[in-house]
Specification:
alpha/beta, Aldehyde Dehydrogenase, Chain A, domain 1, 2 domains, 14 helices, 23 strands, Aldehyde_DH_dom
Length: 507
């Protein structure tokens, strides 16, 4: 395997137009979690490079904001078509760099295509409102204007899809882009940027130079981008710790942040549930992407009357799930991203065991060599919700808790600092509606008869509490990339004042 993946990456990036010289001689070593091998050695950008990128983005924004929104939508349509053309190669590159199984790598690119389709229609629907005025011969209207350059800080687990959620919307809204990808997944960013530049070159003068800027580097580079006063909107995906810093810095300069942070997602399984359906959904939700989704199922809250049988069935699934090379065979679970992820998983399992929980599986598997970290997903039966159960560990650990009443289950569901996604398995309409009500789940996403992961682009994606409160993708998430302006228009010959105020002058 060693060297094979490196060669594959070079072929893909060369086909996309990335120069071979960009992949050699730099201090940032891009690796594949599949084997641990080095794929490229990248040059990193400096603080000065960040300042130059922001300046270029500002100049591009001043031109792009004047392009009619439907024309901006045409650019995004062409970007979607370019992604369709290169879906297989880009999906494979996602798998090589992030370690997710190939169907998930391809699915991530499809998600990019889907949000482009959504944004094309949105470009003709950036609606404001018209309100009645209390003053004669007046009207009130609301309109939306482009906000400015948008900084996008993305994470390794969805290295290109989350960028596209932000980029497609920001572009049709009239904004320019500055992208700082995770240093654990820079190669997919290079590939997408190359495709973007091809679309821009073919689009003509309406697409200004610098419309999308790419910055490769680590934390210091991200900090420079976040603190820059000429970046009015910063979208950041990552840990709660990171989000606290980003939110504080952006707020201090009165910018706007879109934060997509931690998730400690739960599903409730009720006695009325279709248990066969629930079993399949729980397995995917907890083990898909090797537990490295922000929407991964991490807590399973099962009614005490069905818990023993359901957990026994789940243990059989965990014992038999195929773990292996995500590029080949029938593997459903690929590797963890790196050694740090494996060590964090083992620390959480040890803490759970020390607290009296019953740990099943979670061991490292002899796959991929010494620098690759494949594990059997862990199933942990816990008697209480504390310690590692209330913390997000970015690995395939599912904690099982038991409940007796629905109110107790909802209290467990909500009893963690995070508030991203949740679900209930039930065929009782009263239970379902209770879960979806104001007294139910406190998460930004609440599903029924499916797991907490696998969100579609049509709905707004994001969560509450320590998840950050940001919304991306569908619904009216586009408003975060624009500024609202209210207009009062007097089309008469008199000057009546609101609220009955009088200010009479002889003129």
């Amino acid at each position: 395997m060693m060297g094979i993946l490196r060669d594959q990456v070079r072929v893909i990036l060369n086909d996309f137009g990335v120069a071979a010289s960009a992949l050699e001689g730099g201090p940032l070593v891009a690796t594949s979690p599949i084997s641990g091998e080095a794929l490229a050695e990248l040059t990193v950008h400096t603080a000065g490079d960040c300042d130059a990128a922001v300046a270029a983005a500002v100049a591009a924004f001043r031109q792009w904001r004047l392009v009619p929104a439907p024309r901006r939508g045409e650019f995004v349509r062409r970007l979607g078509e370019k992604l369709r053309l290169h879906k297989d190669a880009l999906g494979r590159l996602v798998t090589i760099e992030a370690g997710k199984v190939l169907s998930e790598g391809l699915g991530e690119v499809q998600e990019m295509i889907d949000i482009c389709d959504f944004a094309v229609g949105l470009s003709r629907q950036l609606y404001g409102l018209t309100m009645p005025s209390e003053r004669a011969d007046h009207r009130l209207v609301e309109q939306w204007h482009p906000a400015g350059p948008v900084g996008i800080i993305s994470a390794f687990n969805f290295p290109v899809a989350v960028w596209s959620w932000n980029a497609a919307l920001a572009l049709v809204c009239g904004d320019s882009l500055i992208w700082k990808p995770s240093e654990k997944a820079p190669l997919t960013a290079l590939a997408v940027q190359a495709l973007f530049e091809q679309v821009a070159a073919d689009f003509g003068d309406d697409a200004p130079r610098g419309l999308s800027q790419l910055l490769i580097g680590g934390r210091e580079l991200g900090e420079r981008l976040v603190e820059h006063p000429d970046v009015p909107v910063v979208s950041a995906t990552g840990s709660t710790r990171m989000g606290r810093e980003v939110g504080r810095v952006v707020a201090a300069r009165f910018g706007r942040s879109i934060l997509e942070l931690g998730g400690n997602n739960a599903s409730i399984v009720t006695p009325s549930a279709d248990l066969d359906l629930a079993l399949r959904a729980v397995a995917f939700g907890a083990m898909g992407t090797a537990g490295q989704r922000c929407t991964t199922l991490r807590r399973l809250i099962v009614h005490q009357d069905i818990a023993d049988d359901f957990v026994a069935r789940l243990r059989k699934v965990y014992a038999g799930v195929t773990v292996g090379d995500p590029l080949h065979g029938n593997a459903l679970v690929g590797p963890l991203i790196d050694r740090g992820a494996f060590e964090a998983m083992q620390a959480a399992l040890n803490a759970a065991s020390d607290a009296g929980a019953r740990v099943h599986f979670g061991e490292r598997l002899p796959i991929g060599g010494g620098d690759a970290f494949y594990v059997r997903p862990a199933l942990v039966e816990a008697d209480r919700q504390d310690g590692p159960v209330v913390q997000e560990t970015f690995a395939p650990i599912l904690y099982v808790l038991r409940y007796s009443t629905l109110d107790e289950a909802i209290a467990l569901q909500n009893g963690v600092p995070q508030g991203l996604s949740s679900s209930i398995f039930s065929t009782d309409i009263r239970e379902v509606e209770r879960f979806l009500s104001a007294a139910g789940s406190d998460c930004g996403i609440a599903n029924v008869n499916m797991g907490p992961s696998g969100a579609e682009i049509g709905g707004a994606f994001g969560g509450e509490k320590e998840t950050g409160g940001g919304r991306e993708s569908g619904s009216d998430s586009w408003k975060a990339y624009m500024r609202r302006q209210t207009n009062a228009i007097n089309y008469g010959r008199s000057l009546p004042l609101a609220q009955g105020v009088r200010f009479d002058l002889e003129v």
